[in-house]
Every structure is written in structure tokens, then in C-alpha cells.
Amino acid sequence: MSLAGLFSSRWPGVALFDLDGTLVDSAPDLAAAVDQMLEHLGRSPVGIDRVRDWVGNGASVLVRRALARQTDWEPAQPKDDALFNDALAIFFHAYEQINGQHAVVYDGVEACLAKLKGHGCKLAVVTNKPEQFIAPLLEQMGLDHWFDLSVGGDTLSVKKPDPAPLLHAMEALGGTRGTTVMVGDSSADIDAALAAGLPCVAVRYGYNFGQSVDALGADAVVDSLAELL
Ligand SMILES: O=C(O)COP(=O)(O)O
Ligand SMILES: [Mg+2]
């Protein structure tokens, strides 16, 4: 399956990309910030292997999962819980310093973005990462010049798997359902695309809460974005 094949009408179209685990391997930075937060609170660090499985539902859920130390922990405490608020503030401060330091762009990403741009496509990042961290990370990775728009987890009142952020980006870039595709690494991305009625590609190399992405219902599943060229 090529990207061109996913567009039901002709190029140019709109391509929406998830960020963490799709464009950039940012887990090393996120894990370092989570561990700094835990140590600041007098708790033992958890390390990258656990943090990788906690990324994808935004910073608040990441921090809640780290405090509870389990992947499927559903936020049970009120949002104004003092420990959570402290932890979130410490995490934000730590991640602000670390963001982009250890992260790397995945193989195949640049070639895919270049090909889409070459066809006149508009490109957007649609991530659950808070907005304030998107531009610094894209700049640090040298990816910022590719994108016409970015939508973060706090840009709207809802985030993925809600379809609204995808539809917001699609409409802002003049796309339609026949000319827009979503590319992501987790169930949040694929569920959002399916709910939005958009074709979607899942990548196997990212973070999906430790689960395979093969059965999520994506139109294509790839090991590298280079496979789409
Ligand atoms: O959970 C996050 O903070 C970001 O995740 P995403 O870029 O994969 O949406
Ligand atoms: Mg992701």
C-alpha cells in the first residue's frame, strides 16, 4: 500500500502525522523527565522500558500512569489532587529542559515527508503532546520546516482518540475525507482516524502500550515510512 493509494482522489492531499513514536523516538527524553519527577517526589525511577508503554495519551495520563506505575491505570483521583498537580508541574519543568536532547527521527521519516511535500501535500502534526513542547522538538529534530500546522493534546478541549483534532487539522489545511490520511503508532491514532472516517497507516516501531498495532484496523501497517514511497 502506497500513500498515493490511500488517497481516494488525486494528489495533492493532506497528511496528518502523530509525533511521539511515529516521527520521533522521544521515549528517552520522556523517560528521563518522568524519572526526574519520580526522584524529586522521593520515589524510585521506572526507566525507559516502562515509560515507552505509557506514552500516547498525553502528559497528564503519562504522569498519572507513572505515579500509579501501571499502564492501564485510569485516572481515579480528582484532577486537582495535590500530588498529581505537583508531579505534573515537576514533569513539565524537567521535560522542558530535556525535550529533544536524546530524541531521534525514525528512519524513513524525512524521505516520506519530502515525497509528500514534493507532491504538494499539506502536512500537519496531530499529537497528544502538550502544544508548548511541539515546536521545540520539531526544531531540534530539524523537522519543523515540513509542517504547515501542528495540533497538540491541549489545542482543543479533546484529544485523540477523539476524531476532533484530526478533523480540525484537515479542515484548517483545506483537506477533505477523500484527500486526507492519518499516520500513527498507537490505538489513539487509529481509533481517531476510524472515528473521523479517514484512511490511516499504523507504524509498528512506535509505542502502543506494549501491544501490536496489526489488529487495530489501519488500512496499512508498515515497519518504516519508507515502505509508503
Ligand atoms: O502522549 C503524548 O504525550 C504524545 O503522544 P503522541 O505524539 O503519540 O500523540
Ligand atoms: Mg504516538
From TrEMBL:
Gene Ontology biological process terms from the UniProt entry: carbohydrate metabolic process; DNA repair; glycolate biosynthetic process
Function: Specifically catalyzes the dephosphorylation of 2-phosphoglycolate. Is involved in the dissimilation of the intracellular 2-phosphoglycolate formed during the DNA repair of 3'-phosphoglycolate ends, a major class of DNA lesions induced by oxidative stress.
Reaction catalyzed: 2-phosphoglycolate + H2O = glycolate + phosphate
Residue numbers binding Mg(2+): D18, D20, D185
Cofactors named for this entry: Mg(2+)
Name recorded for this polypeptide: Phosphoglycolate phosphatase
GO molecular-function terms, A-Z: metal ion binding; phosphoglycolate phosphatase activity
Pathway recorded for this protein: Organic acid metabolism; glycolate biosynthesis; glycolate from 2-phosphoglycolate: step 1/1
This enzyme's EC code(s): 3.1.3.18
GO cellular component: cytosol
Nucleotide-binding as UniProt keyword: no
Keyword list, A-Z: Carbohydrate metabolism, Hydrolase, Magnesium, Metal-binding
